[in-house]
Structure formats: C-alpha cells, structure tokens
Amino acid sequence: KAGVTQTPRYLIKTRGQQVTLSCSPISGHRSVSWYQQTPGQGLQFLFEYFSETQRNKGNFPGRFSGRQFSNSRSEMNVSTLELGDSALYLCASSSLGAGDTQYFGPGTRLTVL
Amino acid sequence: AQSVTQPDIHITVSEGASLELRCNYSYGATPYLFWYVQSPGQGLQLLLKYFSGDTLVQGIKGFEAEFKRSQSSFNLRKPSVHWSDAAEYFCAVGPLGGNAGNMLTFGGGTRLMVKP
Q1: Which listed residue, A21, B63, B79, B94, has the most CB atoms within 10 A of its CB?
Q2: Which residues does chain A have with pLDDT short of 70?
Q3: Element (H or E) spanning B33, and its range?
Q4: What is the distance in angstroms between the Cα of B27 and the nearest Cα belonging to chain A?
C-alpha cells in the first residue's frame, strides 16, 4: 500500500497570503489528522476529520481550517499568513477511527516571509 | 488535560551501547501510548504502541518499551544502538476512544546522537 502523501513538500509564501495544503491518506483510511511542528512549540494537534466531519480541533485560531472529501483526501487552509505560521505541517491517517494507529506523511514545509 | 514529558532533550550514546529514553505522561486513565521516530526532514515513523495487555511491547528496529502504570511512564529501550538510530524520538499519548477521536499529544522529543 502506498503511504500517506502530502503536497506540496515545500512552500514559500509571504505574510498576508493564504495557503492550501493537501493530504492523501492510505487507501481505506477514513481518519485524517493534521499537526503543526515548530522548534518552539513542538508537535501540536490542529484538527481531525473522520468521514468528512471534523471530529476534533486543537487550540489554533480560526485562520486554520480544513476539510475532508468523500475519498478521504483532506486539505488544510491557512488564511492571512503570519511569520509564526512557518512550520512543518504533518498529516496522519488511520483506519478504524478513535485510538487507532496513525501513519504520518512526510510533511509540507511552509516558510512565511 | 493530558500531557507528555520527555525529560531529556538531547542524549548521546556510543554505538553498541544500550539506550533508554524516558517518557512520563499525565492522563485520567490508561491511554494509548506510542513512540515515533523522526529523521531530519522526514515525517514520523511508528516504532511501537501500547493499548493494553502485556506491559512490555516490542517494536521495529529492535526497540522495546515498558508501560509502568504506577510511575505513569512508558520508557523506550534498545540493547545496542546503531549509528542509523540517530534521530529525534517522540513519545505520544492518545485518547481511549469513542468520540475522543485520534488526537495525539506529543512530548517535546529527545534528540539522539550516536558516537562512533
């Protein structure tokens, strides 16, 4: 089985712009979670989607949003980018739902200038 | 609120030496526990997980971890470290299930360096 794929792998944006990141889960997986990784804050949970519904949300401002499509692919969007949004954004997928093992993609490295 | 503490930010060991990475968690009940490894510029790879049952868990690459409920710990061990084990290691806890979903709480990570 192919693993979790994320596109693009690298992205450079300027402050005030918006960005959309994409995640394709492992085939058959219905849960997709997003995490932000920064040197200062470490790995932080953004949100989780299961069967096209947001099931959990972390403590991030409303500028961070996401969605999941019927094929389980997910996108996250960040509007009005700030310098502090520079991070590695990781997507993880799992199959059965709550508590199941999450498999991570390679991440999208976002740099905000 | 759940939390995970990895007390050691950096650890250096000699190749062939044994390794133990510490992880302590705070949670209302027995959580799901995980260890992940991250090489530079890469995503996270699952080493092992504990859900229930035997408290000594075997993982990939020769790693094992022991769940100790009384100490709220889930330490990762390897009897003989290889140079390729140099990476950052993350301990994580997850909810028990139901509507709690798949939100993982991660520790701050331990960066392992291996001396030749």
Answers
A1: B94
A2: 1, 96-99
A3: strand B32-38
A4: 15
pLDDT band at B27 (very low <50, low <70, confident <90, very high): confident
Q: What distance in Å separates the CA atoms of residue A64 and residue A44, rounded to the nearest whole number? A: 13
Q: With 0-12 CB in 10 A as exposed, 13-18 as middle and 19+ as buried, what is B25?
A: buried
Residue positions counted in chain A: 113
Distance CA B5, CA A106 (A): 24
Give contacts of A33 with chain B, Cβ < 8 Å: 102-104
Angle, alpha carbons B92-B105-B45 (nearest 5°): 45
| Cβ neighbours of A30 (radius 10 Å) | 17
Which position has the higher pLDDT, A3 or B97?
A3
- Most A CBs within 10 Å, among B103, B104, B105, to test the A interface: B103
3-state helix, strand, coil in chain A (%, to 5): 5, 55, 45
Query: Which of B111, B98, B109 is CA-nearest to residue B32?
Result: B98
CB nearest B109 (choices: A42, A98, A103):
A42
